[in-house]
């Protein structure tokens, strides 16, 4: 079956009660703020020096390289976000600023196409000698992605042509042929960039090189261990010594990998490229590996918030069900990568289970990664925070109780920007005669379906209310098919298409009731379009211009973890719709661990004015009293004394927008 495609961003216009504000924030706040950060214009923020590195490399100023070896990727991801924004928004001032940045990048590029300011400025003789840690290919991949997005958003080719020269250099340098380097990137990303560049330019050799990098990974003697044996090799990252090939998913060939392993971001970028290549080359073995890795990741190594990579040491996966809440890493970039992997698998398989996780990661971890004002960010996304314990040189030193203005290693902030700027490509999937709805976002798009331009408009009240409407105008004579994802968290789902009403007892379509709202005189429905649930999508035939409405209830769900998740045994958390909820100190006082959720009493969703208008959850709980410990004893044979307390939970993505304090997602369960 042919892979579904994403709509072009210039075709998609988001107009949505929830998401319009986030899209506006990217354009009006996040992009300008991040530009200032990369020019070191934010007081008290971590210095970046990103643009200065390019100025030094271009000969515009004197100085030394500063920052991480992959510092160039900050401006690359920023330009990607700008390109995606300019695809739907006219902003001459922003475009001029981006053009100037591209001019600078192109001046820094060397004559043979090489482009990496760390090696141009600091170690020009060390090109390609440390693929494990040097991040040259990783940086190249992000520059290629930026070039494609900027070209698609503006039609301007300058950065695209520069990226093509860089890709040509890579094709001349790497490959199986004699005289070429037979290695592969320590941090996957270039594979994605090469594939996107191949699609944009029609140059097949770029995709072939991506395939080579994936196919050769983990075969024969490990490339990175070979590098480290060479005279003069020096670790850029001392913590990599001794080196574990599994950390970079290079301990075995990719088709033999079934377990999510190593650095979580590297893993997700690699798996995303594997999915792209599996489809492009009809490689069922590679696709099967993707399926197995996805299932392992989401069924045994993922947090309820859609975050992954639990270890604070080396930002990596550990073992099944090892999901601690207060010292986890859960890098924002890892959830962005999970979204990238998931949307690719959804397009290939047409299975809603992948979109379910895309939605979970987006609404929870990715949104939590940026403050509501767009000017501070989380790199790490814990599910429990005790600020006093987040001390340097301890196991929680990586956990920040407040969002940071910027980071010395700032991969996450521009990753959030580019993800939110490209939201339209996650929301909908298309083929020549079908429309798949993954995310319930309001807006409009005009696309070519069945040989005609079809206008599709939608209205949404998600994530706080279960109401979504989608309308079609200009449906071709042969009709279309709509595949509407039935959320795994929804109940009492009802879909109305024309005169037909279909109710779903569950998302597999069991206990369905289908009837006509207005039966004609023969007793037959005038429109029988809703057929079945197919892989989590309601399949609805659209023979002519029509409006389809979906309504569902979004009950508060009290979730429990698999008992093998030792950190969550005996605990519960709250979810409503796609949103996971948490408690904050500002509402409950210190020591949230004293609070037990009384699951024998009702919980209710309540509209609130908090955070610009959201739904909070009110519940009842019991709290251990400290009075019995007034003597200061550390341990004693004392039965706990409880008092009734109200519980007020807020969406997880909103936490730490009212000041510093404790936070927890999981609560102990009080059983009567």
Describe the structure.
By secondary structure, the chain is α+β, with helices and mostly antiparallel strands. The protein has 17 helices and 23 strands. Helix 3 runs antiparallel to helix 4 (92-108) and helix 13 packs antiparallel against helix 14. It is globular and about 75 Å long. Residues 514-528 have low confidence and may be disordered.
Spans of at least 5 consecutive residues with low confidence: 514-528
Question: How many H/I helices?
Answer: 17
Shape: globular
Strand arrangement within the widest β-sheet reads 1-5-6-7-14-9-10-11
How much strand? Answer: 15-25%
Return the structural class.
alpha+beta
Query: Would you count the extended β strands for me?
Result: 23
Largest sheet: 8 strands, antiparallel
- Radius of gyration based on Cα positions: 26 Å
In whole angstroms, the N-to-C terminal distance is: 53 Å
Report helical residue fraction. Answer: 25-40%
Mean pLDDT: 94
Brief overview:
This protein has 17 helices and 23 strands.
Give the topology.
Layout: E1 12-14, H1 19-38, H2 50-58, H3 72-86, H4 92-108, H5 117-122, H6 136-154, H7 158-173, H8 190-201, H9 204-216, H10 223-229, H11 264-280, H12 284-300, H13 332-349, H14 352-368, E2 384-385, H15 412-421, H16 424-427, E3 428-430, E4 434-437, E5 443-449, E6 452-460, E7 467-473, E8 480-485, E9 491-497, E10 500-504, E11 513-516, E12 530-534, E13 537-542, E14 546-553, E15 556-559, E16 571-576, E17 579-584, H17 585-588, E18 595-598, E19 604-608, E20 614-624, E21 642-651, E22 663-664, E23 667-670
Parallel strand pairs: 4-8, 18-23
Antiparallel strand pairs: 1-5, 2-22, 3-4, 5-6, 6-7, 7-14, 8-13, 9-10, 9-14, 10-11, 12-13, 15-16, 16-17, 16-23, 17-21, 17-22, 18-20, 19-20, 20-21
Helix pairs in contact: 1-3, 1-15, 2-4, 3-4, 3-6, 3-15, 6-7, 6-8, 8-9, 9-11, 11-12, 11-13, 13-14
């Amino acid at each position: 079956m042919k892979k579904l495609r994403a709509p072009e961003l210039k075709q998609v216009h988001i107009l949505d009660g929830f998401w319009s504000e986030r899209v506006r924030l990217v354009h009006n706040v996040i992009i300008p703020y991040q530009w200032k950060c990369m020019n070191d214009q934010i007081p008290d923020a971590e210095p970046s020096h990103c643009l200065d590195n390019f100025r030094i490399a271009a000969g515009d100023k004197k100085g030394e390289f500063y920052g991480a070896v992959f510092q160039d990727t900050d401006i690359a991801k920023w330009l990607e976000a700008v390109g995606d924004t300019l695809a739907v928004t006219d902003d001459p001032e922003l475009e001029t600023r981006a053009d100037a940045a591209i001019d600078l990048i192109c001046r820094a590029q060397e004559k043979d196409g090489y482009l990496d300011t760390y090696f141009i400025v600091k170690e020009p003789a060390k090109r390609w000698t440390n693929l494990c840690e040097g991040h040259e290919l990783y940086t190249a991949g992000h520059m290629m992605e930026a070039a494609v997005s900027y070209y698609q958003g503006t039609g301007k080719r300058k950065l695209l042509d520069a990226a093509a020269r860089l890709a040509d250099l890579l094709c001349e340098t790497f490959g199986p042929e004699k005289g070429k380097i037979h290695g592969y990137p320590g941090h996957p990303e270039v594979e994605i960039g090469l594939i996107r560049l191949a699609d944009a330019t029609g140059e097949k050799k770029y995709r072939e090189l991506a395939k080579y990098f994936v196919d050769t990974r983990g075969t024969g003697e490990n490339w990175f261990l070979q590098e480290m044996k060479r005279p003069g090799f020096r670790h850029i990252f001392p913590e990599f010594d001794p080196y574990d090939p599994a950390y970079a998913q290079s301990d075995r060939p990719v088709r033999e990998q079934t377990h999510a392993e190593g650095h979580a971001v590297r893993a997700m970028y690699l798996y995303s490229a594997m999915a792209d290549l599996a489809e492009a080359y009809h490689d069922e073995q590679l696709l099967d590996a993707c399926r197995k890795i996805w299932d392992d990741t989401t069924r045994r190594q993922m947090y309820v918030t859609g975050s992954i990579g639990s270890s604070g040491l080396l930002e990596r996966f550990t073992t099944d069900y090892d999901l601690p809440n207060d010292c986890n890493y859960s890098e924002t970039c890892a959830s962005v990568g999970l979204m990238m992997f998931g949307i690719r698998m959804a397009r290939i398989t047409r299975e809603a289970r992948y979109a379910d996780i895309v939605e979970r990661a987006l609404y929870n971890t990715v949104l939590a990664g940026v403050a509501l004002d767009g000017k501070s960010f989380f790199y790490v996304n814990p599910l429990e925070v005790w600020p006093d314990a987040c001390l340097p040189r301890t196991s929680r030193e990586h956990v920040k109780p407040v969002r940071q203005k910027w980071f010395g290693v700032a991969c996450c902030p521009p990753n959030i920007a580019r993800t939110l700027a490209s939201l339209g490509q996650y929301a909908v999937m298309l083929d020549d005669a079908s429309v798949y709805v993954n995310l319930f976002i309001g807006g409009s798009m005009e696309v070519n379906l069945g040989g005609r331009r079809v206008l599709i408009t939608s209205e949404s009240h998600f994530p706080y209310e279960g109401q979504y409407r989608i309308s079609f105008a200009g449906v071709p004579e042969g009709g279309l098919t709509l595949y509407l994802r039935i959320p795994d968290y929804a109940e009492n789902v009802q879909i109305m298409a024309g005169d037909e009403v279909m109710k779903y007892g569950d998302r597999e379509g069991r206990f369905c009731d289908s009837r006509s709202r207005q039966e004609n005189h023969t007793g037959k429905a005038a429109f029988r379009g809703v057929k079945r649930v197919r892989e989590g999508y309601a399949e609805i035939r659209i023979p002519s211009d029509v409006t389809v409405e979906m309504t569902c209830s979004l009950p508060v769900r009290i979730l429990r973890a698999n008992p093998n998740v030792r950190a969550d045994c005996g605990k519960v958390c709250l979810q409503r719709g796609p949103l996971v909820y948490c408690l904050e100190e500002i509402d409950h006082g210190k020591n949230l661990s004293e609070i037990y959720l009384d699951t024998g009493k009702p919980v209710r969703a309540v509209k609130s004015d908090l955070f610009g208008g959201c739904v909070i959850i009110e519940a009842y709980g019991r709290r251990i009293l400290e009075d019995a410990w007034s003597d200061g004893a550390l341990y004693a044979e004392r039965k706990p004394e409880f008092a009734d307390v109200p519980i007020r939970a807020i969406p997880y993505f909103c936490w730490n927008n009212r000041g510093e304090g404790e936070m927890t997602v999981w609560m102990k369960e009080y059983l009567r």
